[in-house]
Amino acid sequence: MRDVAPRPVTVIGGYLGAGKTTLVNHLLRHNGGRRIAVAVNEFGALPIDSDLIEGADGNVLTLAGGCICCSFGSDLVAGLIDLAARADTIDHILIEASGVALPGAIAQSLSLVAGLTLDAIVVMVDAETIRARATDFYMGDTITRQLTDADLVVINKTDLISTEARAALQHWLPAHAPSARVIAANHAVVAPDIVLGIDSAFVHATTKVDHFTRAFATESFEFEHIVDADRLAAGLADPAIGLVRAKGFARDPLLGWVTIQVVGQRHHVTAAPTLADPSGCIVCIAHGRRLDRTAIGTLIAACRPS
Amino acid sequence: MSITIYEAGKIITMNPSRPTATHVAVRDGRILGAGSLTELTGWGAHTLDRRFADKILMPGLVEGHSHVAEGVQWRFVYCGFHDRTDPDGRVWSGARSVDAVVQRLDEANQKLGTTSGPLTGWALDPIYFDNRRVTRHDLDRVSTERPIGIMHASGHIMNVNTKALEMAGMLRPGVNHPGVPLGDDGLPLGEMKGPDAMTPLGPHVGLDRGLLSADEPGLRAFARLCVRKGVTTAADLANLLPKPAVEMMERVGREPTFPVRVVSLRVLRGASPRETIEHALALKQHSNELMRFGIVKIVVDGSIQGFSARLRWPGYYNGAPPGLWYVTPEHLREALELALQAGVQVHTHTNGDEATELVLDTLEAALKKHPSNDHRFTLQHCQLANAAQFRRMKNLGMCVNLFPNHHFYWGDEHYRLTVGPERAERMNACATALATGVPLAIHSDAPVTPLGPLFTAWCAVNRQTASGRILGEHERIGVADALRTITLGAAYTLKLDGEVGSIEVGKRADFAVLEDDPTTIGGTHLKDVRIWGTVQGGRVFEAATI
Questions:
Q1: Residue B128 belongs to domain spanning
Q2: Same domain, A191 and A205
Q3: Given a cut of 70, is residue B34 above it in pLDDT?
Q4: Of A83, A195, A305, B424, which is least surrounded by CB within 10 A?
Q5: Is A44–B272 a contact, with Cβ atoms under 8 angstroms apart?
Q6: Residues B180 and B276 in one domain
C-alpha cells in the first residue's frame, strides 16, 4: 500500500441558493497551490465556472491548477473511493453536498473510505432567507440539522441585509449551530485558509495577511517546551478562546512530533515528521476581534507536562 | 390475418357489459371480441383452439411497480425466509434460521469448488430470526478464502464475511459510521446498513450497483418470471435508461418470442429536471409494442423500515428522526411544471405522509400554472396517506399505487416499531382510495417483495401479517375490486387502459391463463390460484416450458 498521508476533506453544506457553488469556484480560483478535487452531486447544472474548465475525461472535469471536479450522482461513497485511489494527484477534497443532504452524515461516510480524513463541515447560509427556511414546514428540520452539523457557518450575502438584521442573525445563529464558529461574507468570498485549513508552509513563516484574511486576526506562537498535544488542541478549540482556525506543530511526550489542527470546536492531533526547527509553533486565526494573546500564551504554558 | 378463437372454461373480462364469456377471438394479436362461439364466428374463417377449455382466462395481469433487476437477483443464492419461485420455476424453500442460511451458502460454495470469485446471496430477512444479527463470523463458517455477501430482502442492508471486509479495506479500526456496527475488537461485524456502508463492499461480493440494473439476461429472466405469475405488462420503475440499455431493450422487445410488455421509467438522478424531462420525451420515440418509455420517476423520500421516509407529526413510533428528503421542493416543482408543459407523466415515490403532502402541494400549485385534464401523475407506495390526502389526490386528478405486500412482510414491524398500531392499520388504505374514487393500483416493488399480482391482491384483500395479525380490517377490499386493480387499475396508471387491462374488442390479446377461478376460490385463497401461463399479444406462453 502507498504511504500517503490521509487527504483532508471539507464538506460544504447548506440549502439551495446559499452560495455553495460560488464558494467552490472561489476556492478553486484561490487555491493557494492546493490541488483540489471537487465532488459534486451531479453535473445537471454545471457547478464550475466555464473559464476554470480545461477538459473532460469521462465523469471527471480537469480544471486549472491541477484541480478536478467529479460528479458522484447518488453514490457519494463510490465517488470518494475513486478519489482516494487518485490521492497522489490531490491535496484536498471538497464535497459540495446537495441542498437536502445532512453534512454530518456525509462526514460519517468518510470513515468508510481509507485514506480520507474530515477536516471540517462548512455550512453556507443565505443571510436573507435562512431564518425563514429554518421554520419552513417541509425543510425546517433539514435546515436546522445542517446547522447543527456545522464546524463553520458562513453567512453569505450579508450586503443584502441591514445592520440590525445582521446583528439579529449573529444572535440567532449560535443557538442553532452550537458547534460552529460563524463568519460573514459577500459573494462567498472567504479566505481559503479559513475554509480549507491553514497551509503548513505558513505555520513557520511570518504572520501572513492576504487580502482575504484582513477581517481576521492572525497570530503565531512559538514555544520550545514539549506539550500535552491533546490538551492544547482541546484548549484551542474552547469557545472561550474563540478561534476560527488554528494549526501548528508541537512535541508531545508520548506521541513525538504532531500536527495540531483546530476548526471551530473540532480538533485533531496527528503524527507529523520530525522538524528541523526544535521549537513548536501554532498559528491562530480569530474572526472580527483581536486575538487574546495572553489567554493563548497561558494555555500553551499550562499544557507543559509537569 | 388468421383468426383464432379460444374456448375457455370461463373468461373473466373486466368489461362490465359482458363480465364473463366462454370464447375470445384473436386476430393480429388483438381481441376481435369476447362472447359465445356463435357470436364470434361472424368474424369469418377461424381456428378453434380448445387448449384452454378447462382453464380460466382473465386479462393479463399488470404489475404497476417492479424492477427488472428481479431477474438479476436469481443468479445469486436465495436466502429468504419464505418459499419463492425463480424464473425457471424452481421453488426455493425458505431458509428458516441463520444455520439454514449458512448451510445453503455452504452447499453453493462446495459447488463453486476451486473457481475464484465471490459467493453472493440475497433476500435475507433477520426480522424472522428475532432480529438476531448475522455477522462475518457466521459467514466465515462458509469460507474464509472466498468473499461472501448477502443482500437483505429490504435491499438496504448487506452482510459480508471477513474476506470481503479485508478486500474492501474495511477490516480496520477507526470506522465510525452508524451503518457499520463494530465488534468488541473494534472491527466491523460485517453488517453494512444503508447505501453508503454497502458501497465499498458491493464490488467485492458481486453486488455492484451498476450490475443490478437491467442487463439482457436479467431482462429475459424477469420476463420468464412474469409468465409464471400471469403478468403480461410490467412497469420497471427506476431506470437511468442509458443508450445501450435502451437499444438492448428495443431489440429484445422486437423478438417474436419475448413474452412481456415492459414500461420503463426514467428516474430523476444524475441530471437536472430539464434534462430528465427532455430525455424522457426523446425516449418516447423509441417505444415499440413491448418496450415503452416516456414516463419520469422522482424519488422524494426514503423507506419506512429504514426510518428514512418523511413522516408528518408525530413521526416515528420509536422516536427516530423524521426521515430524509431525496429531492428539494424547488427541484420537484421545476420537474412537475416542466413535465406538465411537455405532457410527460410523472410517478413520485413517497413512502411517508409528509413526502406525499409535499407532492400534493407542489402539484396543486403547478396545475394552476399549467392546467392538465388527464395528467394521471401517480403517487407510488404512498403508504401512510390519510383520508384527507386521498381526497386531495382525487381533486387533483392523481392516481395512487399502494403497497399492500408490506402488510405481510413487515406489517408486524410497522405495528410494533416504525409507525405504531393506528397508522399500521391505516397503511396502504386501499378501501379509502376506492371509496374516494382515486384510481388505484397495487404493487410488489419486486425484488423487494416477490413479483405476483395475485399475491398482492391477496394482501389487499386480507391484510394479514406474517404472524397472522389482521392489520386494519376496515381497509380490506373485495376480491372483485382487487382483481380489477391488478388489471385495469394498474393499466390506467400507465395510461395503457385503452390497450390492455380488460378482455374486449380492440384491445391487446393479453390474458392470464389460470387453473383456478379467482372469483370463486375465496379471498383467503387468492394467493393459491394456480397459473398456467399467459397469452401476450395473441402469443401463447406456458409457464412449464418457458
A1: 73-210
A2: no
A3: yes
A4: A305
A5: yes
A6: no
Supply the DSSP symbol for B489.
I
Q: What kind and span of H or E run contains B484?
A: helix B479-484
The mean predicted confidence, pLDDT, of chain A is 89
pLDDT of residue B377 exceeding 90: yes
Are B203 and B290 in the same domain?
no
Show which of A196, A225, A245 is a domain's final residue: A196
The beta-carbon neighbor of A111 closest among B175, B271, B273 is B175
CB of A94 closer than 8 Å to CB of A25: no
How many CB atoms lie under 10 A from the CB of residue A131? 17
Last residue of a domain, one of B210, B233, B248: B210
B42 at the A interface (CB within 8 A)?
A: no
Burial (CB count <10 Å: 0-12, 13-18, 19+), residue A29? middle
CB contact under 8 A, B272 and A45: yes
Mean pLDDT of B78-92: 94
- From chain A, the residues in CB contact with B307 under 8 A are none
How many Å apart are CA B140 and CA B540, to the nearest integer? 47
Interface residues from chain A to B (CB-CB < 8 Å): 15-16, 42-45, 71, 73-78, 81, 98-100, 102, 105, 108-109, 111-114, 138-139, 141-142, 145
Task: Look at A99 and B197 and tell me if their CB atoms are within 8 Å.
Answer: no
C-alpha cell at B28: 393480429
Q: Containing domain of residue A55, as a range?
A: 7-196
B322: CATH: 3.20.20.140
Per the structure, the count of domains in chain A is 2
Q: Which residues of B touch A142 (CB under 8 A)?
A: 325
Only one residue has cell 444455520, namely B99
Q: Supply the CATH number for residue A157's domain.
A: 3.40.50.300
Domains identified in chain B, total number: 2
* A174 and A237 assigned to the same domain: no
B463 within domain boundaries:
yes
Helix (H, G, I), strand (E, B) or coil at B21: strand
pLDDT of residue A103: 96
Q: A139 and A232 share a domain?
A: no
- Cβ-Cβ contacts under 8 Å, B275 against chain A: 44
Q: Is B327 on the interface with A (CB under 8 A)?
A: yes
Closest alpha carbon within chain B to A136: B329
**In this structure, are strands B191-193 and B157-160 parallel, antiparallel, or unpaired?**
antiparallel
Return the residue of B nearest to A115 by Cα: B169
Of B196, B271, B321, the CB nearest to A42: B271
SS3 label, residue B338: helix
Q: Is the pLDDT of residue B271 over 90?
A: no
Q: Are residues B175 and B320 in the same domain?
A: no
Chain B CB contacts of A105 under 8 Å are: 196
Query: Residues for chain B: how many in total?
Result: 546
Q: Are residues B297 and B398 in the same domain?
A: yes
A77:B196 CB<8 A: yes
- Using pLDDT thresholds of 50, 70 and 90, give the confidence band for residue B132: confident
Domain CATH for B133? 3.10.310.70
> What ipTM goes with this model?
0.86
